[in-house]
Amino acid sequence: MTPAEMEPRIVRYGDLKPCNTAFIDAHTPGSDQKENFTIIGGGVSESKDQHVHIAIPHGFNIGAAGQPPKCRNSLHSHRTAEVFFVLKGRWRFFWGRWGKAGEVTLEKGDIFNIPTGIFRGFENIGTDYGMIMAILGGDDAGGGVIWAPQVIEDAKDHGLVLSEKGRLYDTRRGDTLPKGEKAMPLLTDEELKGFPEPTTAEVIPNHVARYWDLVALADKTPAKVIGEKGKLCDKPGFEVDLITRASATEKKHRHDRPSVLMPVKGHWRVDWDGGSTVLAPGDTMSVPEDLAHSAVPSMTGEAALYHVVATDDPAGPTWKG
Predict the structure, then answer these.
(1) Is the pLDDT score of 314 beyond 90?
(2) The Cupin type-2 domain covers which part of the protein (predicted)?
């Protein structure tokens, strides 16, 4: 594969195209400065304005959220895995029906495999614009977002209505629901009972991995982060490894399905049969299936990247309580 052929599979951080109206809370004060990015796959955006950078199916989706300080993402849930790692800034993640069941603070490089089926939200508690990268299980990412009832109710006061098909309509722009289509119904009290309320102590040990702990594990071989034998032992339909300078090798390898490289620190030279490129933090590269490739740091200093590849495990609920 030539560099020109590979170029559409590389998304540079500086070329990311944000959507400011991706979700129902886009006009709600405190959440109205979010930027949503859909990098690989269709994602879960509710807006027709969302740009998709790479539409090739991978068995999972890759996205990102960029937010200024004190901006938050409202409480929602997914039917498949949602994994975040911090690219920039300092972030607080919180969960539960009202966001009070538990919380954790993540720094750069930390990764959080959020339990499936709980309401979760997050906010930038740093002093500068922050960015978190996301991996969502399945090609259809579980069919969309499930919002806590209060989020939908709050959005009505600011002109946004979500249809029963998961499409967003802005009444302030003159949008109306299509004829015969109803608004997304609120979850009933009975349905809400099906959303767990795990405590911080229950969640953190098996769902949060600190960057420096992973670096220590990656001293000779890549650290298994998410997967059957990962530090966060889970089978959400994909595996995640952390590769560092100490565990990188110039020996090429290949996968029988597309894989993704996402640097978090340092610059990385990726070589493949037919070409080479350099990735920086925030860049995302999709490597085609059966293409031999390698990745090694291209400069001195600290270097780490996350590697993601799909598995044959179903991309369904993984939280067992």
Answers:
(1) no
(2) 69-132
